[in-house]
Design goal:
By secondary structure, the protein is an alpha+beta fold. It is built from eight helices and 13 strands. Helix 1 runs antiparallel to helix 2.
């Protein structure tokens, strides 16, 4: 039975043991050196107090052994702590391949959580016991911080960026969820709970309650609704990058520079991860697919962060073109115009690449052209 008095919350995730061990070691070292310093101070105060019969003649001006000791010993301890904490850091940052993925959106003053299978929750996260869980998080307004004390995990959540954390629950039960970053007047009310269920109960839970379409299905609906397939689809006349197989692939991009024509900007290779796809939707002119014109309008303010992660989840499903009827072109995964990617390319004779901004606005429903085309 757990004691009613505990200095730390109970350990309920695999990370907790290692983090607590490091914490107690740091506490021990702090107490030890504090005690040594205090004992030395008391000893010298008593030994050399006024009137004490102590030999004060010929005081030593140097003591090499002592100096090496008080320099070398703390140095070795610090290097040991550095190595231990580094190993622990990377261990807790490397997400297992079989981790269950959940998307988290922070907003004053609530947590919105989406499971790819279709379940969604508010200020509550339900996960299975004994399985790694990966959280991909972003914010709609200000900086928040996702904190589960019993799991010993905490990660800041930023607007316009994505952060990740993972944990593996070891005990079934209900645990506290806090925002650990001051985020406004109702910050103290931005709380929730994490419910850990046995695997069988979790699978049953997924099929009940707030069940909607899967995130990928809702993302596909948004993809078509906002005219994305009008530019990235098979029969589009707009020469835009294909999206099949893009997620996780290496992609050449050009980052515009003031006063330098885009065609003179060298391309660099980046990974098309969730950050890249997110920024391509809200900041399309920051990183332009190499060989393409910067004609895509921004959807910032038209799509919420929640909707963007749904579109990203849909694009993640476009891994191959093997019979997938997704409204995109079939027959390859490169998606670059001739000579843009440096490899085997795919072109579509229906695409002219010379479509005006009026056609872009008609396809997307956005009446304001990009700033660089006004």
């Amino acid at each position: 039975m757990q004691s009613s008095i505990s200095l730390l919350p109970e350990q309920s995730a695999t990370q907790a043991g290692g983090i607590d061990a490091l914490f107690w070691f740091l506490t021990f070292i702090t107490v030890l050196f504090t005690a040594l310093v205090c004992i030395a101070i008391v000893y010298f105060v008593v030994r050399y107090r006024r009137g004490a019969k102590a030999d004060r003649s010929n005081p030593p001006l140097e003591h090499m052994t002592l100096e090496l000791a008080w320099t070398g010993i703390p140095l070795l301890i610090c290097l040991f702590i550095f190595g231990w904490s580094t190993v622990l850091y990377f261990k807790n940052r490397l997400v297992p391949r079989d981790a269950l993925e959940v998307y988290v959106v922070g907003k004053q003053w609530m947590w919105k959580l989406q499971h790819p299978e279709g379940r969604w929750e508010m200020n509550k996260l339900t996960v299975p016991m004994g399985r790694p869980v990966k959280l991909t998080m972003t914010s709609e307004d200000v900086i928040h911080s996702f904190f589960i004390p019993e799991f010993r995990v905490k990660m800041d959540v930023y607007p316009g960026r994505f952060t990740e954390l993972w944990f593996k629950p070891t005990k079934a039960g209900t645990y506290h969820l806090f925002c650990a970053e001051f985020c406004g007047t109702l910050h103290s009310g931005m709380v929730g709970e994490v419910v850990v269920l046995p695997p069988a109960e979790y699978e049953a839970w997924l099929q009940t309650g707030n069940v909607n379409k899967t995130m990928a299905s809702r993302g596909e609906q948004l993809f078509r609704q906002h005219g994305c397939s009008g530019c990235h689809g098979q029969n589009s006349r707009v020469r835009a990058p294909y999206l099949e197989g893009i997620y996780g692939a290496q992609r050449p991009v050009q980052i515009p520079k003031a006063g330098v024509p885009l065609e003179n900007v060298p391309a660099r290779t980046i990974t098309a991860d969730i950050r890249y796809i997110h920024d391509s939707i809200v900041l399309p002119n920051e990183e332009i697919a190499a060989g393409f014109k910067p004609i895509m309008p921004s959807y910032k303010g038209r799509l919420s962060e929640e909707e963007i992660v749904q579109i990203v989840e849909y694009i993640r499903t476009l891994k191959t073109s093997n019979g997938t009827d997704n409204g995109l072109s079939h027959g390859g995964i490169q998606g670059y115009p001739n000579n843009a990617s440096g490899g085997t390319n795919r072109t579509n004779t229906n695409r002219t690449g010379d479509v005006g901004t009026s056609d872009i606005r008609a396809r997307t429903g956005i009446n304001t052209p990009p700033a660089n085309l006004r």
